[in-house]
């Protein structure tokens, strides 16, 4: 996969029925599956450099 802790990535996820897409820094991650070219991961991220998120399912789109 090639993604690791501290990588800057573009992520897409849903939280409380709101959709988010934006830059993030990977804090910790566990790969769940790979569907449609996206890696779905259990992820702890720093989203947009100021919000800490712990996500059960998020898609990493690309490295920034």
Can you tell me the overall shape? globular
Biggest sheet, spatial arrangement of strands: 1-2-3-4
The count of β-strands is 4
| Helicity range | under 10%
- Overall tally of structural domains: 1
How much beta, percentage-wise? over 45%
Radius of gyration: 10 Å
Distance between the termini: 15 Å
Main beta-sheet annotation: 4 strands, antiparallel, barrel
Overall average residue pLDDT: 76
Uncertain residue ranges:
none
Structural class comes to: mainly beta
Summed up, the helix count is 0
H-E order = EEEE
What attributes characterize this protein structure?
64 residues, mainly beta, four-stranded antiparallel β-barrel, 0% helix
Report on this model:
- It is built from no helices and 4 strands.
- With 64 residues, the chain is mainly β.
- It has one domain (8-63).
- A 4-stranded antiparallel β-barrel has the order 1-2-3-4.
- The chain starts with 7 loop residues before the first strand and ends with a strand.
């Amino acid at each position: 996969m090639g993604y690791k802790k501290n990588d800057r990535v573009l992520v897409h996820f849903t939280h409380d029925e709101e959709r988010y897409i934006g830059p993030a820094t990977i804090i910790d991650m566990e790969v769940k599956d790979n569907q449609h070219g996206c890696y779905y991961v259990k992820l702890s991220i720093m989203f947009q450099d100021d919000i800490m998120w712990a996500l059960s399912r998020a898609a990493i789109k690309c490295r920034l």
